Amino acid sequence: MRFFHIQIIDGNRKKGVKNNDNKKWKDRLEYRCEDCIAMALSYQIRHLPVVTSMLIGLSCGDGRLYPFDEVTTDTDTEDIEVDTDSEDIEVDTNTEEIEIDTDTADTDTSTSSDELCPAWDMRLDVLLPRLMLLQDLSFSMNSNASSNWHQAKQAIKATLEKYKKQIAFGFDGFPNATNCVVSRPPYLDCDPQNAQIIIDEIDSLDLFRSTPLYLGLKNFTKTGYAPNCTAQDRRRYLLLISDGADSCGAGGPIDPHGASAEELAEVTSSVLESTGTATFVIGYGSGVNPYQLNAIAAAGGTEFDEYIAAQHQFEFEHALDIVYAAVADCVYHIDNLSNDPIVMDEVNFFFDGDLVGWDDNCAHNTGWTWAEGDTSRVEFCHAACMQLKAGNVDEITAELDCPTISIP
């Protein structure tokens, strides 16, 4: 910690101090700051060792200018002193000429950091990610009294209740009619209100004979299919849930050989490329085809390059938790109410007044980053996001015009 004490005495041209308006200038300015760097703003002091400027503020390397917090008058001292923790330096004004620019001598040294780094007049609107549940509705889901389908419904209901305020859900099933038919629109396109609708209506869904994995995925390559879920204005995902292997092939109707792993990977890649929708995969029960499901997962564009396996309800619920937690982010649209131009590297965000550090592309999963490469969206990374989701933050604010401060 360094302490800078600068004392200017006797303004009537005494001891070489020039004062063009013959007013006395007697201020003692003090500021403390860790690793300070003196910043010249107004008054110039010539030939002064260590500092070369009369200080009205200090930069600490954190993007802010800090004003001095004490102004007093002292008429007894005739020297200029600079005092730090590590050294005391005195400059005799008999031998050094000191010039004070009287045009700025009356500058208010109480300038606040809020004036130097003004608050950003903006509003944050949460952008819920979109997740389409693509559920296997084949007969095999209901093959015994304690069926996969019964357990799956209970797990789906429980996890939807948990995440219904964090994700805009949609729901689709395959097949949605007899045999390999998947020609109907999705049951529900993505919407923030859908979680409760799915919870209320999932028990009424019918099951059918076949398992058209390929055809169910292919629907999402079609223009206009589930337009809310595949819209480009926010992050979008597909969650494929199945307990079996494809039995319809790439063309249907029922094909005993089903679609190949390569065909399933290809159509999954097409979903990602055509709509930007990434695909997660959960395999439920012992009847899955791991080659097929892993091919879909590897091409899905998520952090999971293999399907998530679940053998019973509690494992399935845990698998859903894993996917939903990966999807539920903290991306906000920024409404710039001030209409001032925003410089990307001159913005800082705060939670209840505490700085949230810049975390480029959430590399440390700690701070914040620009979500889409511009100033219209901000993403709070995992640790910060968890604070928001836990309700531990009352106010998010931002300041402008000072260099962005990175996390330590």
| Radius of gyration over all CA atoms, rounded | 32 Å
Number of domains: 3
The number of helical segments is 9
**CATH class call of the largest domain:** Alpha Beta
Contiguous low-pLDDT stretches (5 residues minimum) are: 1-63, 68-114
The CATH architecture of the largest domain: 3-Layer(aba) Sandwich
CATH topology of the largest domain: Rossmann fold
Rounded mean pLDDT score: 76
Helix share bin: 10-25%
The CA-CA distance between the termini, in Å, is: 18 Å
Overall geometric form: elongated
Structure class: alpha+beta
Largest sheet, in brief, is: 6 strands, mixed
Strand order of the largest sheet: 14-13-12-15-16-17
Please report which band the strand proportion falls in: under 5%, 5-15%, 15-25%, 25-35%, 35-45% or over 45%: 25-35%
Q: Would you report the number of β strands?
A: 23
- For CATH, the homologous superfamily of the largest domain is named as von Willebrand factor, type A domain
Description of the molecule:
The chain has 408 residues and is of the alpha+beta class. It has 3 domains: 2-111, no CATH class; 146-229 and 237-326, von Willebrand factor, type A domain (Rossmann fold, 3-Layer(aba) Sandwich), CATH 3.40.50; 330-400, no CATH class. It contains 9 helices and 23 strands. It has a 6-stranded mixed β-sheet with strand order 14-13-12-15-16-17, sandwiched between helices. Strands 11-18-22-21 form a 4-stranded antiparallel β-sheet. A 3-stranded antiparallel β-sheet has the order 1-3-7, with no helix packed on it. α2 (148-163) packs parallel to α8.
